[in-house]
Amino acid sequence: SQQGEEDPQALSIQEGENATMNCSYKTSINNLQWYRQNSGRGLVHLILIRSNEREKHSGRLRVTLDTSKKSSSLLITASRAADTASYFCATDELSSGSARQLTFGSGTQLTVLP
Amino acid sequence: DTGVSQNPRHKITKRGQNVTFRCDPISEHNRLYWYRQTLGQGPEFLTYFQNEAQLEKSRLLSDRFSAERPKGSFSTLEIQRTEQGDSAMYLCASSLEWRVGNTIYFGEGSWLTVV
């Protein structure tokens, strides 16, 4: 079953604008990870944020985590056409004991128009 | 290339046939995972291995599915008597021993179309 829900399901912006995607989840987590998937390809790991962290940066990416609200956001600044892809959040749940798996949301399809 | 490698990348098969996918994880990774992804959805967990031991299987993994990792290195996922509902992308991933900060790395996936 899918743990996370991404919002919005689809997002279309102009090149140079910022893109914000949100993820909500249901259970307590060890960490939350964001992945990118180009059409028909595998998943590329973007960033991991641990449950005791509130914000993390990596290049043009900024991730926030609010464990009290069970939500996370991914901000991509100064977007480029090459950022066009689906973005998924994935949670590593505390209830899984040794964290045997990731549980994914259904993704946000980002389109960056040139 | 030292990433996760999957073969074949695409497979078209007739309903009722058996198919097998192979995954070669990143060499030092002792954990290996299989996920399935259908169009418009996120990946769903199927099973995972710690070295050669299969430690968890999802209820999605019916009796027609079997996964092996005989020497704790590469893994195979076999689907017997394929059905049209098996059409999906099968993703393999690997990671080091679990730590809070360990990343799971995915391969490019194997597309299965059952006609």
In short:
The complex is a heterodimer of chains A (114) and B (115). Helix content of chain A is 0%, strand content 56%. Chain A is built from no helices and eleven strands.
The poorly predicted ranges of chain A are: none
Q: How many helices of chain B in DSSP terms? A: 0
Q: What is the general shape of chain B?
A: globular
Q: What radius of gyration of chain A results from the CA coordinates?
A: 14 Å
User: In which range does the helix fraction of chain B lie?
Assistant: under 10%
Separation of the first and last Cα atoms of chain A: 36 Å
One letter per element, helices H and strands E, the order of chain B comes to EEEEEEEEEEE
Q: DSSP strand (E) fraction of chain B?
A: over 45%
Sheet having the most strands of chain B = 7 strands, mixed
Structural category of chain B: mainly beta
Q: What's the overall geometry of chain A?
A: globular
